[in-house]
Design a protein that fits this description.
By secondary structure, this protein is α/β, with parallel strands linked by helices. Helix content is 36%, strand content 23%. The protein folds into 2 domains: 4-241, Ribonuclease Z/Hydroxyacylglutathione hydrolase-like (Metallo-beta-lactamase, Chain A, 4-Layer Sandwich), CATH 3.60.15; 246-389, Flavodoxin domain (Rossmann fold). It is built from 13 helices and 23 strands. It is elongated and about 75 Å long. It binds MU-OXO-diiron. The site of MU-OXO-diiron (FEO) has 9 residues, from helix 2.
Length: 390
């Protein structure tokens, strides 16, 4: 396996996980990579590692550049095991190596691996000289875990931000321009929506802290390395972190006998007549993680469920549980559904939207049995009212 020199004497030595199709429940049809970087200087530094089962792949790439036993520092930017999973093995092979990590990183490593490796715990902003180069570390708590930090190489204007700016793409290409903005942006948005979205405030703080640094290249720990589309990437990250959306609507629903689907179509009709583009996602065919990029982009989110056993359908419940954890803000919501008796499903959806702090200007549209023409016309009018709000 060959390394890729991304800057003079800085090598990508990561692993490509071609077969990964689910990253703790987030579907990854393109697979992913775990990106590790080797900085060759008077002192040799490995920044992050790979998931445990790709250790041999990483090692063979390192061996193509240096003797791994000569590694002096192993930077652990983040303890999650897709990046720290090969730390135990590399520490065996590189006996003189010290781990560089944040205070919470050290605690996390001890908790997870029950090992007492020699650690250099760094403060935010602290620098380490490796010879001709400097490594500077900035704590970025909650992007993605409390331990997270980024590593900056000022001489190369290179940022190694770990999870931030990542995308789940397995490819032979290493750089953004090799696959193009459309693919890179699509997967970066999906990654942000499914992994980073709850931490918008922390992302904004990190973007503020990094704004004064000259950056020419961002090499994250998943997917492509950004060297061409940096301005576009930073712009969309700022928008996502600030919960900015487009004047679009997302309709998510499940249906038992087709009644809730009829209401969904009437709502779509009303929104489109009012000039609002609508994305329609049925939970029988769309996985919850595939819907999150639509949530990321859409100002209005309409969620529909029939009532089953005094509550919402389990598919809708799973979607709302996932959505609640990802904490999208500044959305306008509308709940809808059908029922035979009771009618609790749509009411529960409305309550869940309110609990997330969304603006819910209209009562839930809740129709008994199959909706009639008049009820569908009323739903269409409700959608037009919603369009005025968004
Ligand atoms: Fe890619 Fe939070 O780990």
């Amino acid at each position: 396996m060959r390394p890729v020199e991304i800057k003079p004497k800085v090598y990508w030595v990561g692993g490509v996980d071609w077969d990964l199709r689910s990253f703790h429940g987030y579907l990854t049809p393109r697979g992913t990579t775990y990106n590790a970087y080797l900085v060759v200087d008077d002192k040799i530094t490995l920044v992050d590692t790979v998931k445990h089962y790709l250790f041999d792949e990483m090692l063979s790439r390192i061996k193509a550049v240096v003797d791994p036993a000569q590694i002096d520092y192993v930077v652990v930017n983040h303890v999650e095991m897709d990046h720290s999973g090969s730390v135990p093995k590399i520490m065996e092979i590189a006996p003189r190596a010290k781990i560089i990590t944040s205070p919470r990183g050290k605690k996390g490593l001890v908790r997870h691996y029950k090992r007492d490796w020699e650690c250099v715990v760094v403060d935010s902003g602290e620098k380490l000289t490796t010879g001709a180069r400097t490594l500077q570390f900035f704590h970025t708590p909650m992007v993605h875990w409390p331990d997270s930090m980024v590593t900056y190489l000022p001489e190369e204007k290179l940022l190694l931000p770990n999870d931030a700016f990542g995308q789940h793409i397995a490819s032979a290409e290493r750089f953004d321009d090799q696959l193009g903005w459309n693919v890179a942006h699509e997967e970066a948005a999906k990654y942000y929506a499914n992994i980073v979205m709850p931490y918008g405030d922390q992302v904004n703080k990190a973007l503020d802290a990094l704004a004064s640094l000259p950056i020419e290249m961002i090499a994250p720990s998943h997917g492509l390395i950004w060297r061409t589309f940096l301005p576009d990437l930073l712009k969309v990250y700022r928008r996502w972190a600030s919960h900015e959306t487009e004047k679009k609507a997302l309709l998510v629903y499940d249906t038992m006998w087709g009644a809730t689907k009829k209401i969904a179509l009437a709502l779509q009709d009303g929104l489109e007549e009012a000039g609002v583009p609508v994305t329609v996602r049925c939970l029988q065919t769309s996985h919850i993680s595939e819907i999150m990029p639509d949530v990321l982009a859409s100002r209005a989110v309409l969620i529909g469920t029939p009532t089953l056993n005094n509550g919402m359908l389990p598919t809708v419940g799973a979607f709302l549980t996932y959505l609640k954890g990802l904490r999208p803000k500044k959305r306008v919501g509308l709940a809808f559904g059908s029922y035979g008796w009771g009618g609790q499903g749509a009411k529960e959806v409305k309550s869940a939207m309110e609990a997330m702090g969304w603006e819910v200007p209209l009562e839930a549209i809740n129709i008994q049995y199959t909706p009639g023409d008049g009820e569908l016309a009323a739903a269409k009018e409700a959608a037009k009212k919603l369009a005025e709000v968004i």
